[in-house]
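tool_log.txt
---
The assistant was asked to compare two proteins side by side. It first ran the structure predictor on the initial sequence, then on the second. Raw inputs and outputs are pasted verbatim so the downstream comparison step can read them without reformatting.
(1)
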Amino acid sequence: MESAPLGRRMLALVIDWIVAALSATALTGVNYPPDDPMQNAVITGFFVVEVGLLVGLLGSSIGKRVAGIRVENPDGQPIGVGYGLLRTALVCLIIPAIVQNKEGRGLHDIVVGSREIKV
């Protein structure tokens, strides 16, 4: 399996962030762009839950599906809800997603034992 290229990963991230922001705005009434740190936290929470659940259960979030990316464990299966939520929370810290090994796996993937592949 071929690792997902950085451009596809960035596209997926942007799409997922937009989906989370729109969901948070529609369901809680926060503003986008957020007016204060609390509104930003609400949007970030929506991002973690939406992406974490979808990646954990299905292997792809909305953005990853559009970008042609799948997240899987070494057996080729979705990583599960717990790991999906942890992985997404680590992405929000930014540094784990930026620091990568030779295979292109970020620290967030290494911690949960996942990989992003091109489909």
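(2)
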Amino acid sequence: MVIADANFPSASLAQRLIRLDGPMATAVADAVLAVMPLDDFSPEVAGRMEVVGDPEAEQPIFDAFRRMIADREGTRFHLAALERFAFYERAPGEIRLSDNIILKKGVIRPA
């Protein structure tokens, strides 16, 4: 699942597109993670796009994404950095730049 900003070419990449014009990517990701577990079989279940031209740069949104995925169901997850076109490849509205995150769904276990 990709949660992307308004600059992401969603219409040309998405197999199924749901537009959410208005809410911040962090609010959308938080709502999704409240009901969707992350894949605990893989350490890289969340990926963010590198800043074009400065792959080591840190945008403020990256820390927010890290906090969201840091501890889910007792497992520590990592926010992977992906080069722009690698991100597009893995990702066959929001207005802040670099607000793109890929979340890999995990197994829904019975309570």
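---
observation on (2): The longest helix spans residues 25-35. Residues 2-103 form a domain with the RbsD-like fold fold (CATH 3.40.1650.10).
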